[in-house]
Sequence to fold (631 residues):
Amino acid sequence: MLIKQIDAEKILNLAREGKVTLRKDPGIHSFSYGSRYAVTDIPKFTFPEVSATPEVAYQLVHDELEFDGRPLMNCASFVSTWMEPQADKLIMENINKNLADQDEYPAAQVVHGRCVSYLADLWKAPKDGNAVGTATGGSSEAIMLGGLALKWRWREARQKEGKDTSKPNIIMGANAQVALEKFARYFDVEARLIPVKCETNFTIDPEEAIKHIDENTIGMFIILGSTYTGHFEPVHQLSQMLDEVERRTGINVPIHVDAASGGFVAPFLYPDLPWSFEVPRVVSINGSGHKFGLSYAGVGWVLWRDAAYLPRGLVFELHYLGGAEETYTLNFSRPACFVVTQYYNFIRLGREGYKRIHTDSLSNARLLSRSLEATGVFELLSDIHRRRGETYHGLLKQAREAGKGQSVNDIQSLGDEFQAGKQGSVDGVDGELVFYNAGLPVVTFKFTYAFQKEYPTVTQAAISLLLRVKGWIVPNYELPPSCETVEILRVVVRESMSADLVDGFMHDMIWALKLLTEQNGVGASILASQDPQVQGNRTPRFYGQDGQPIGDTNEPKQQSNTAMQQMTSMLHNEKTKALHEKWNKTFVWARKQMSATSEYGWKLASQHLGKEHESTGKQDSHHQSTYARPC
Fold:
């Protein structure tokens, strides 16, 4: 991240009311425990001249970092924020090892090589054993390396034919993560960004992508897990279309799969989905170990199906560290500890462990999806909680054609209809995965048309802001170009987000909605309109199990007893057990709609708001363990 030189203390000095002269140098730390440690001034923006004691340095840095958000409640990030204590121990044991020094740390290199072999098997590389790969600092570096290999192979082929090599281009969807665009800009490649469509789940439009191919196309980036909505782009479909292009024009366009997130989800949850090296046109894949690979930030991977797809001109042979070694990275020195913990995860969890953990994450993501829909305020753009083949765009189209409104909530399968749609052969963990749409455990949602119409001044940005007050970090952002008029909220459901946290999240979400919509609340006076003609005395529309609105939406606010008020008042009044029970029933109902998936984890989770809780309203003492590893 580029940072400009700053002096934020100048702003504080303006508010010191003449006391500025007490501090001759505003660019120093005002240390809380200065009198305890006899601290001298420590500059903020100029290099310190004198040393500080370790106690002082630690306390100062520790206190400054207290302004950070809580990683557990960071719903914006895909990055893992927890590992087992044994992994933490391995990090500390190996934190001083440099992975680049192969001669000095040969065991770390053995571990590195085993990880590459594991991934080659996981991503279905040809059985001839000629796949090659390397660890990187993350998927961004891995994408650079994969893109460079595409460019060099294209250039070499053009040079052999005596053709111009000055105008390379690469094709990707407008939903591409910034690292893909960075590759194009940094290495002089034209980025041909294909606009996304609602019809293509806000990912690349295959038909449009094919139209942009020419003889200067070095390859195509295809994303297995869009950071916008969590959808997988159709690798196999695009590969078949590129086969047809080659038959028709002779232009060979290879595929690099950006599997930063999906590379550690699809192999375990959707093993029959063709996206990796079993697709012949896929020549390279990158993955992020610190996302759904469940390691801490600092490790990524890139693999090529065969050494022939990695031009030798990109590989350096080094001798100055004591032995001959080959390297193809943008960074040289790098910590070995994160590769070590990635190896720990591979042998600790195996296919079974990764499958169970990600299945639970998907289950909790579906639970959150159903809960958000149950409010009647939100509609979901992500499709992981919907039946296979049932998409946001398809449901929206049906709703409009049927004259049932502008929301997918008006027509999508819910309740008994949703359960009745299951086939008799679909049961258990694998059956549930087959039944639902494939995708990442990511939940993206926005206000329904009805809610926007009723409360036009209430914004999703305000929801994001109020959730931040409660500690939740939930981004609100525009969709990619061609859909940028639509704003969505996004929650990434990682292993650390248990069903209990989903429950807490929904309580805080309802609190935020109540604050924004009540006539005389903070939301009405600050974050929403104060115009009585706009805000009115109406209460928001919430829907019950029968799909009908709860409460009279025309009843004056001061006399109403809406479902929203019932569900949120429990946050402020512990005596209202009946209201607590009503929210619990709503939560249980949402859970029933998406149905329990994994046997593991959900046996505990179901006790949190199970049938006995539904009937008695008593608080159960059992909760789903956030970090209950399966093995």
Q: What stands out?
A: Residues 99-335 form a domain with the Aspartate Aminotransferase; domain 2 fold (CATH 3.40.640.10). The CA atoms of residues 552 and 560 lie 8 Å apart. Residues 337-374 form the longest helix (38 residues).
